[in-house]
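Late entry, written up from scratch paper. The run itself happened at the end of the previous shift, but nothing got recorded in the book at the time, so transcribing now.
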Amino acid sequence: MTATSHWLLAALLVSGSAASAQGPAGKDLFIRGAFNGWGLDNAMVYKGKGVYEADILISPGNHAFKVGSKDWSAEWVIDPNASIKVATDTDYRMDTSAGPEDYLFVKTTAPYKFSVDVTDPKAPRLRVTRLPNPAVAAIDPHKGHQQQVVQAWPTFDGKQETVRFSVQDAAAAQRTYAQSTTMQLRDPGPQYALYSEPEGLPVARTGNLAFDALFALAGFEMKQNSVSEIKDGNYNGGAAIACACFETGEKWHYVWTRDLSYAADLGLAMLDPARTRNSLDFKLSPFRKGVVKAPQVAGSQDGLQIIQDTGSGGSWPVSTDRVTWAFGAEEALKSLPAAERKPFAARALKALANTIENDRIAAFDKESGLYTGEQSFLDWRDQSYAAWIVNDLSSMASSKSLSTNVGHYKALTLTASLAAEHGDDARARKYKAWARDLKKAINTRLWLPGEGMYSSLSAGHFDGAAMHKFDWLGQSLAIVTGIADEAKARSILSRYPHGPMGAPVIYPQQPGIPVYHNRAMWPFVTAYGLKAAAIGGNASVADAAYDTLMRGAAVNLSNMENLEWLSGQPLLLDEANPSLIGPVINSRRQLWSVGAYLGMVVENVFGVTLEADSIRLRPFITAKLRREAFGTAEAITLRRLRLHGKQVDVRVELPPASSATGYYDIDKVTLNGVPAQQQIRLDQLKANNTITVTLGALRAGQQAIRRVSADPYAESPDVFGPREPVITRLAHDGAAVALDIGAGGNPAGTVYNVYRDGKLVAARVAAGTWRDARAMAGSCYAVEAQFEKSGNRSHHSAPRCTGAGLQVPVTDARVKSNLGIQPSSVRFAAPHLKDWGKPGDRFAVDAVRIDSAGQYRVQIQYHNGANQINLGISGGVKWLMLKNAAGRVVAQGVVQLPHARVEKENTPLVYSTPLQAHLAAGSYRIELSDFYNMSYLDSNSTFSAAGGTHGPWNRVDIYGVRILKAN
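Output as recorded:
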């Protein structure tokens, strides 16, 4: 889904009489959609007479889909300007250019036939037909099993789901389990699962068959995700790539930086350090051969660095959470044997240092002390950002997010440690200082005292305020990394909202948006919340996390990608609002969900964590978990855990169950019968070991938890935020500013807060006209909506600034470039320099007159249509310099020119991120030159779209320059 030349397949179509091996299309076609992770699982078979067919068993949902080729060099939709809800037994003419996904609404699981008729090459036709359900023989997976247990899980609508577990031979060293559920599963398949405890992984023996089975299920799914080759339709022509790696899930057969890194940190690195290392190494890349580094690019000559493989606007540096790689790398380094650790540590240091140095150049805001970039993993713009952001990704690029900044902090602390280990004390001191300053900036700029939590993100340039938006991953990581002190951790844990089924990944929810990041729980995020709760001693939050993780794996027969947060459903089927159905994408055995479950058991229940040269024991067993999960058991055991080539059995001796609340202190620890400390050195271990942890007194700890609830089918103001308002007019008469605040469709009981230059200047005003008598030239305004009753707030409006500034179009005589000016067209209604930015291209503006000294912001007016706004590696990343009349550089830095939307007519132009500069009155020269983007990396040399197989792509269409005076 990443190609720009979507006309290509239409050009290849020929008549049926000239069909190739793939039929008249000349290449394979696939039905690709949310039901198969947009992958290649549903190939269309050529049936003759110009017709391709694919029969697909589809579960309930409102499924987005397209017809696409293997490498996405072609994708077909019904209407390139709008999504179409497809009716069965209806013919649709398809367009062979890119466009939004079409949708098929499915109420009950059934097989469907997708037929594409290419008899007319310019107008393929699509028809979807529902087929009869095949007869399926009833199977009892528990028949003949030795031992069975039944769990009942309450549902959001007052009912319950029943899950049954059984085991063939409870005394077997490697048990085989059956698990069945009454819940309708997200994906087609039997209502049961059969799995065995995998060789080489630890097993749980707790006296609770269901608990032991679910741990075995997670290990089984870890082994399913352990592959010898990976593939993605966007790379290597869709062909497999050899890699003894972890794939991302049942529907995701590739390795993604953030998914892998969080999964490794949560549990996979300890259990399979070699495969974790291989996977992490796959996410490193040098520059391509022949790439000439711009002089401003930092780091080693080969450029080895972490890959930012997904994100908005063309990837890095709109998205900068590639640094989350450090979470996984740190755990892998703790887990690898010394001989394997040494070369990986050296490679990790090099890649991390190169990444850190270039992120510092491209994505660090000196004024705030924070790194810019999209929220980590919340990379689906309209799910967690303002609706207007899709038309202004530069504002996303210049915003600062909590989760991503915590990732930068982890990268800095790990790299400082590795530098010290390798004798580079100067670099170690530098990165320690950067980490210390970043920690301070996060606590200064993003902590909201009135909320008792960190803001998830600040607004972008021309605003910059920390918004009243919250996410569980960012809050939890701040606690886990130690950025949040004890008081802040206690506050976060008690104030972040939890629904009946657990904590949502964002709060409040976004109105009018389906379930995915919005309105969802993600198990890996819940697992970080559990880690944070253990650190903060909050038993109530820990109990909520334990329940979420165990329930999700039990009723779904798998560790799912995500679940709707109020109902706990893998799919909330809303027939009244089919566009809001979700999660819109969901996969079984999602890697970070698997890592989350394994880590929950190994680290939180049995308390095993690795340090650089030791094992630390700190089980966090609450009274509720002890009472409800382990019943009358006097002890629970984790057997055959392999650590640095040694086998370790961990036995936790339990106090009698209690009806009270809290968590249990550790009374004593023994190693092979000898008293030991909670931290045991690795060199104390023998070939086979037994560690016994005896729990003691019940400590009350923290109990505070914020519970919220609402109808999952209604957009209640109790759990949703308002829609962001609009500044419909801004007028400045030199003495005052008048803002017209549009309500944005919000209901009665909504008030509005006005920000000037990122500072709150008016609270709880009504929609309509608001006046600012203290306005100054160059001030910028933004408005947020707030529900009076719940206090939930919206994203900020798009900012509006006083003063038009200085505009210099490319047709101005002061503009100098080696490219000729292209005339305006129906699609782009202004003259421009087309595809500017290849090696050797020049762009400068001479004799730019600044009449008065002050702060200024310089932006490039541009368009970047190299790929869609959610795809690709070709975001524009350039170096902008301002020189005074004497030729001295007075300001310089990276500006970003992300992908932008393309319309058939009158495509709106956009502006780059700004370069800020204090300028004296006088004449200046503006020069634009190259930096680099992810297409310069060797790992992307087989990418199917812009910046891939045909070489790096860092080009944009330039329309002019804008200079705005700031307040």
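Confidence is low (pLDDT under 50) at residues 1-21.
(Scratch paper discarded after transcription.)
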